[in-house]
Design goal:
Layout: E1 3-8, H1 12-21, E2 25-31, E3 40-41, E4 44-47, E5 61-63, H2 69-76, E6 86-88, E7 106-109, H3 113-120, E8 127-131, E9 139-140, E10 143-146, E11 158-161, H4 167-175, E12 184-186, H5 188-191, H6 194-202, E13 211-212, H7 214-217, E14 218-222, E15 226-228, E16 238-241, H8 247-251, H9 254-264, H10 277-280, E17 307-311, H11 332-347, E18 356-359, H12 369-375, E19 385-390, H13 397-404, E20 410-416, H14 422-428, H15 434-450, E21 455-462, H16 470-480, E22 484-489, H17 498-504, H18 516-522, E23 532-533, E24 548-549, H19 552-558
Parallel strand pairs: 1-2, 1-5, 2-4, 5-6, 7-8, 7-11, 8-10, 11-12, 13-24, 14-17, 17-18, 18-19, 19-20, 20-21, 21-22, 22-23
Antiparallel strand pairs: 3-4, 9-10, 14-15, 15-16
Helix pairs in contact: 6-9, 11-12
């Protein structure tokens, strides 16, 4: 049942608040003393504060706005008290959180980065102690640390699991009879709770003048079944994980609604603006926020994702120095979980309305049993667009014939290469054979010429070992007939120490400015060729002028091949 209320303040915060809470509150009218405000906004009548002198009902008043001093003064001079007759909009935020901390001791399992992040978020509850299985420590930031085997009364505690690969811990807890989210949750449920995220975006004053709808239509499924609603390199917040919640509930969750608000109100609060090319190539064109909100409705997200990107199996035949120090082949439990994710994606109907499938953002698509389950499934046959990411070493005619069987949509190929010579390639992409890759890229070029590949792109992660080969790489891509030679700056995924990364990165300490030797390469005429895309390299990035982007992944390919997604973009 909706709660009847009066809104005090007509501003952007009001509009944001109603986007989240309009199905929870019933508004009698809106109070605002600005002479320029209309008599009616949307379907709501707008009055001055003198209207409150006539008030005879007991409905609460909710103050919305960046500055609440004047509204609060008006209400308190009439004898009203906060928390009784009136409230701030933020007083309602906690009601969005689907977990509740019970009246039990709270313990945290893990003493790593996620546990520290939990502490830094200053949770509203007291932590009794931490748990760690592997480290031989007795204290973590002033809290005692215990081993699981020294704990007997699990059901008498509420556990927050605070590390990434937590399947064993969750199995252990559930064997003890503990149920999510009544007896345990993940740390991300706390520090990225809907209430916290809403507070960040609703009070964010910086706004941008363009529209990106990716969060409304995009889903990524990554390691351990964690999920995101944009590229995980560009958006630091995600939804829940598939292990914890049904696919439909996850997609249609209040957390997704809050993330959608951050793009609908044009704050883009959670977007990494030093990584996403939509910001890199545009500059910080922030727009003033002192305006009466338009009556135009904010958009809601699609009923099901239109773009689905998969990246949850690290199985790969290479051990590239940028991401791992060993060849990883999913076995045992890891393989079982990846396979189960694929089966669930197929059976839960994730792909039934998908128009663009991207496979795979982690591991090698042509080696992974879990990814093969997806692309060999009949549900993929009628997906209009399929893009697969590979290291190219296994892209043979035999695998191509197997992959394309039964598919009716356009197929796009993206290959991670990172070099243009045999010596550099085999140092960086360890276990890879350059001669095999070269032959496979010739085969891909043939498919592109024949029209069997709708798009062909090669990727290059720029670092100290390979930056001098960037021009040669562009020449190679042009000779093959690639649509795009795509460059990105190297990131530290935990592979390097800070000192090692400082030496191998071609960016200055700010992470944005190229080192002088890279600037020299970027200034060469070949690097100005239309085939080149500098991706996350901000320096010399061409201006991004589009004012509306429906989906990032479609947009970045549309720039190089305008006819590729003609259903979504005006052509000509």
């Amino acid at each position: 049942m909706k709660q009847k209320c009066i809104i005090y303040g007509l501003n952007r915060v009001t509009k944001d608040f109603l986007y989240i809470f309009e199905d929870r509150v019933e508004i009698d009218y809106i109070i605002d003393d600005d002479q320029n405000k209309p008599g009616i906004w949307r379907r709501y009548q707008v009055y001055k504060s003198s209207k409150l002198d006539e008030r005879i009902d007991e409905n609460p008043i909710i103050i919305c706005g960046f500055d609440k001093k004047l509204p609060q003064h008006e209400l308190e001079k009439r004898g009203m008290r906060r928390g009784i007759e009136y409230f701030f909009e933020s007083d309602y935020f906690k009601s969005l959180d689907y977990y509740k901390i019970p009246d039990k001791p709270v313990v945290v399992w893990g003493t790593g980065a996620n546990a520290k992040k939990l502490l830094d978020s200053r949770p509203e509850f007291e932590i009794s102690f931490f748990i760690d299985t592997h480290k031989d420590i007795t204290e973590f930031h002033g809290y005692p640390v215990k081993k699981p085997e020294h704990i007997e009364n699990w059901k008498d505690m509420f556990v927050i699991v605070a590390f990434a690969r937590d399947s064993d811990a969750i199995d252990f807890l559930e064997e003890k009879g503990m149920i999510y989210p009544n007896d345990y949750i993940n740390a991300v449920n706390v520090y990225d709770s809907p209430s916290r995220l809403l507070a960040q975006t609703i009070f964010d004053r910086a706004r941008y003048s363009f529209t990106c709808n990716s969060i409304l239509n995009h889903l990524e499924i990554v390691t351990n079944g964690n999920t995101a609603v944009c590229c995980t390199t560009f958006l630091e917040k995600g939804l829940d994980r598939l292990k914890n919640i049904s696919a439909d509930k996850m997609w249609n969750s209040i957390k997704h609604k809050v993330l959608a608000l951050s793009t609908e109100n044009k704050t883009y609060t959670f977007c990494l603006k030093n990584m996403c090319p939509l910001f890199i190539g545009r500059g910080h064109r922030q727009i003033d926020d002192t305006w009466v909100p338009s009556e135009e409705e904010y958009l809601d997200f699609e009923k099901k994702p239109k773009v689905v990107a998969l990246g949850y199996d690290s199985t790969c035949n290479l051990m590239c120095e940028t991401c791992r120090n060993e060849v990883r082949i999913a076995r045992g439990r890891e393989k079982k979980e990846a396979d189960e994710l694929s089966e669930r994606i197929i059976s839960d109907g994730f792909l039934s309305d998908t128009e663009f499938l991207i496979e795979a953002g982690d591991g090698e698509v042509f080696l992974s049993h879990a990814y093969k389950k997806i692309y060999m499934s009949s549900v993929c046959n009628d997906i209009p667009y399929i893009r697969f990411l590979t290291n190219g070493t296994l892209f043979t005619p035999e695998r191509w014939e197997e992959f394309k069987k039964g598919k009716t949509g356009k197929v796009m190929l993206t290959v991670s290469v990172d070099a243009a010579t045999k010596d550099t390639y085999e140092k960086i992409r360890r276990n890879g054979k350059f001669d095999n890759l070269y032959q496979n890229m010739d085969f891909a070029a043939e498919l592109k010429r024949k029209g069997e590949l709708a798009y062909f792109r090669m990727n290059f992660v720029v670092q100290q070992r390979n930056y001098e080969e960037m021009p040669l790489f562009v020449e190679w891509a042009k000779r093959l007939g690639c649509d795009e030679a795509f460059f990105t700056k190297i990131l530290n995924w935990g592979t390097y120490t800070k000192e090692e990364f400082r030496n191998i990165s071609m960016m200055e300490e700010d992470g944005v400015t190229p080192k002088p030797e890279l600037r020299e390469v970027l200034a060469l005429p070949i690097m100005q060729d239309p085939i080149v895309d500098l991706g996350t390299i901000q320096y010399c990035h061409p201006d991004t002028t589009e004012e509306k982007i429906e989906n990032y992944y479609m947009w970045e390919m549309h720039r190089k091949e305008p006819k590729l997604f003609e259903k979504y973009f005006e052509i000509g």
